[in-house]
Amino acid sequence: MTATDRAVELTRVAAAAADEKLATEIIAFDVSEQLFITDVFLLCSAANQPQARAIKDAVEEKLLEQGAKPVRREGDREGRWILLDFTDVVVHVQHTEERAFYALERLWSDCPTIDLELA
Fold this sequence. Notes:
Strands 1-2-5-4-3 form a 5-stranded mixed beta sheet. It contains 4 helices and 5 strands; from the N terminus they run H-E-E-H-E-E-E-H-H. Strand 4 and strand 5 form a beta hairpin. It has a single domain, classed as 2-Layer Sandwich (Beta Polymerase, domain 2), CATH 3.30.460. Helix 1 packs across helix 2. The protein is of the alpha+beta class. The relative contact order is 0.24. The longest helix is centred in the middle third of the chain and has 17 residues.
């Protein structure tokens, strides 16, 4: 089983929105064979809390335009690790320090990555 076309499409829209807000280290993993709760984890980094919130806002706005609403949102107040759950796609916006400490890439490194088609 692989991520659905809809999940990949939403992932690319979310990645583009994050990229527009200058997110770094943007990567997506197809976790559909490992988890039953979602198809894709999208990870990106922000240099500071205001940038993390701006990335979150941009991702939400663009995915709402695609008809996807977040079913869960965590970490918005602190802005160090914001999680947006759109069911098919879970977006992690992490402060660079949290990204280095938790190293989610290592955890999901056995999962295939998704071509985000970013310039």
